[in-house]
Write a structure and sequence with these properties.
The structure holds 2 protein chains of 2 kinds. By secondary structure, chain A is mostly beta strands. Chain A contains no helices and 11 strands. In chain A, strands 2, 4, 5, 9, 10 and 11 form a 6-stranded mixed beta sheet that branches. Chain B is built from no helices and 11 strands. The chains are: A mainly beta, B mainly beta.
């Protein structure tokens, strides 16, 4: 069993819609959760991090964490074609600074 | 602040050779992690260094090694290269002051022929 699981997609949404990306993790000791965006041929770019249960909003992005269900999600409102990328979820224990990454979900936003 | 830098950006090596990759973290960051990314396996953790000490290691053979210098710059070395070592090698730096969020460098693309 992988430590972090993501649906590989592709997830296709029309421009202006809400894109919902999901991730589950297996280690109940995980304390830190991150979402990265990776464009083809580029390195991952940190877009959101969350440590506490609930929602965290930053512009068009909202990260949601449910530790009881071991579930993390990323909502992208008003999706734009420039949001088309692979989104990586990561979970881990910050005091050990060791994180596991999911295999990523490819998002396509159609104009 | 300047971001994470990695050199070289591209490398072509032949089987059996060894290679050294370099990473300079964001100024003030003392933790450096290394990852291997391949299409089949995704992003896999190699090791992490903090204040010149390796604190964590992933499930890679001993051919993969690293070190960190007093200025937090880090190197990783791969000896006796195999075709399967062809990958994008990414370095990420983080700071305890910012909650250990990891920021990635542009990566080194290694091709083994």
């Amino acid at each position: 069993q992988k430590e972090v699981e993501q649906n590989s997609g592709p997830l296709s949404v029309p421009e202006g819609a809400i894109a919902s990306l999901n991730c589950t993790y297996s280690d109940r000791g995980s304390q830190s959760f991150f979402w990265y965006r990776q464009y083809s041929g580029k390195s991952p770019e940190l877009i959101m991090f969350i440590y506490s249960n609930g929602d965290k909003e930053d512009g068009r992005f909202t990260a949601q964490l449910n530790k009881a269900s071991q579930y993390v999600s990323l909502l992208i409102r008003d999706s734009q074609p420039s949001d088309s990328a692979t989104y990586l979820c990561a979970a881990g224990q910050y005091n050990f600074n060791k994180f596991y990454f999911g295999s990523g979900t490819k998002l396509n936003v159609k104009p | 602040k300047a971001g994470v830098t990695q050199t070289p950006r591209y490398l072509i090596k032949t089987r059996g050779q060894q290679v050294t990759l370099s990473c300079s973290p964001i100024s003030g960051h003392r933790s450096v992690s290394w990852y291997q990314q391949t299409p089949g396996q995704g992003l896999q953790f190699l090791f992490e260094y903090f204040s010149e000490t390796q604190r964590n290691k992933g499930n890679f053979p001993g051919r993969f090694s690293g070190r960190q210098f007093s200025n937090s710059r880090s190197e990783m070395n791969v000896s006796t290269l195999e075709l399967g070592d062809s990958a994008l090698y990414l370095c990420a730096s983080s700071s305890i002051d910012s909650g250990y969020e990891q920021y990635f460098g542009p990566g080194t693309r290694l091709t083994v022929t």
